[in-house]
Specification:
- This protein is of the alpha/beta class.
- The protein has a single domain (about 10-260), classed as TIM Barrel, CATH 3.20.20.370.
- Helix content is about 45%, strand content about 15%.
- It contains eleven helices and nine strands.
- Strands 1, 2, 3, 8 and 9 form a five-stranded parallel beta sheet that branches. The protein has a four-stranded mixed beta sheet with strand order 4-5-7-6.
- Helix 2 (about 35-60) runs parallel beside helix 10 (about 235-245) and helix 8 runs parallel beside helix 10 (about 235-245).
- The model has no long low-confidence stretch (mean pLDDT about 95).
- It binds zinc ion.
- The site of zinc ion has 6 residues, from loops.
């Protein structure tokens, strides 16, 4: 059984991850949104305002994160991508568009993989991680990742500890909706995400409880956020409080997804 080799003195791992989807998530939800600038402005906020507030919060706490970014977002917002890299954060693959692999043929999925990787590697970084759009994978996904030089995935919900997909030798860094900001904060008219907006304080409490639970079991807390949702003023304030709380535990290894994947053997 492969296991996570934690640094001396550390009892669990913690990764701060963002899916920098900007407009792509709205375009994937409904291609006709291309003609709806008002709808798209919800995603644009992530690139225009949310990302900057998030980067400032991470700087204040001296923490590094992983930004899973669709290739088309990287092409549309090169300045923002350069900023992420300049702050020492990791870039991960998140599709070229934000299309679920379950809606693509194997050839189309390969094309998304290659175009997305090339778009991110323009920024002078090596991309070894993949998070599937909408956390959906096809029967070809892990074969394609293995064949194209990827080392890890962060898309599955079947564990609280990293594991290895066999026979592909791709490390999995598991996720969960309760540690994602979207189910609490993603509200939009006329979409699947039409639900009650939660207060930042409620979400802080849920995240604290789950982090403490996973920490007690020696697992990996994979926090997943979106600059367009977490980047609202009240929520970045909550994020700063929550991450300060996590940081106050000396026995938590807070690092990037790529670093955790490298420690699995
Ligand atoms: Zn996404």
């Amino acid at each position: 059984m492969p296991s996570l080799a934690l640094p001396p003195g550390k009892k669990s791992a913690f990764v701060i991850s963002f899916d920098f989807d900007a407009e792509e998530v709205w375009l994937a939800e409904n291609p006709e949104n291309i003609n709806r600038p008002g709808v798209l402005s919800q995603g644009k906020y992530g690139a225009k305002v949310g990302l900057g507030l998030v980067l400032e919060t991470l700087d204040n706490l001296d923490l590094t994160a992983t930004f899973f970014t669709p290739g088309r977002v990287a092409e549309r917002y090169p300045d923002q991508l350069r900023e992420i890299v300049a702050h020492g954060h990791e870039l991960g693959h998140h599709g070229y568009t934000h299309t679920s692999p379950t809606k693509l043929s194997k050839a189309e999925e390969l094309e998304e993989l290659l175009k997305g990787k090339a778009a991110l590697e323009q920024f002078g970084v090596e991309v070894t991680g993949y998070r599937s759009p909408s956390w959906e994978v096809s029967s070809s996904t892990f074969d394609l990742l293995a064949q194209n030089g990827f080392k890890y995935s962060s898309s599955m919900m079947d564990d609280i500890r990293p594991y290895v997909h066999q026979p592909h030798q791709i490390v999995e860094l598991p996720v969960q909706w309760m540690l994602d900001d979207a189910p609490y904060f993603w509200f939009s008219v006329g979409s699947d995400w039409n639900r009650t907006i939660r207060s930042a304080g409620d979400v802080e409490e849920i995240w604290r409880e789950e982090f403490l639970g996973i920490h007690g079991l020696g697992g990996l807390t994979m926090l997943t956020m979106h600059p367009q949702f977490i980047g609202r003023p009240s929520r970045v304030n909550m994020l700063e409080r929550f991450l300060s709380f996590v940081k106050s535990h000396d026995d938590v290894w807070i690092t990037t997804a790529g670093e955790v994947a490298r420690a699995v053997n």
